[in-house]
Specification:
alpha/beta; 2,3-Dihydroxybiphenyl 1,2-Dioxygenase, domain 1; 4-stranded mixed β-sheet; 2 helices; 8 strands; 34% strand
């Protein structure tokens, strides 16, 4: 009956600009738009919807309640990190690793937390 997440929505003061940020920096593609809402799709089929925000953005901290980050799967961690760095993306910390996995945190064009992740072995 329940198949999993169909998409995740992120409210943005400028959904079109943020959708384009994901296109320009993370190789997503804008695949649908209506009434100021933009859907982007990643190569692995992941979908994010950007919707118009209402009101000011509260300061977010990494451990605040609620959704805290989106993990962006990469097959070449060093190349992906270098590409983002050359594009001016500021990383929030140095890369870390555990059990062969590598991650590094950064923020998107609106300040939402993301991280690159490379897993040599997929989650079970």
């Amino acid at each position: 009956m329940f198949k999993g997440l169909e998409h995740t929505a992120i409210a943005s003061p400028d959904p079109k600009r943020l959708a384009q940020w994901y296109v320009d920096h993370l190789e997503f593609k804008i695949n649908y738009e209506y009434d100021g809402n933009y859907f982007v799709r990643a190569a692995n089929g992941t979908v994010i919807e950007f919707i118009p925000a209402e009101g000011p953005r509260a300061e977010a901290k990494m451990r605040d309640p609620g959704i805290r980050h989106l993990a962006i799967q990469v097959d070449d961690f060093d190349a992906a990190r270098e590409r983002l760095q050359k594009a001016g993306v500021k990383f929030l910390a140095e890369p870390t690793g555990t059990q062969g996995n590598r991650i590094v945190f950064f923020a998107d064009g609106d300040g939402n937390f993301l991280h690159l992740i490379h897993r040599p072995k997929p989650l079970p």
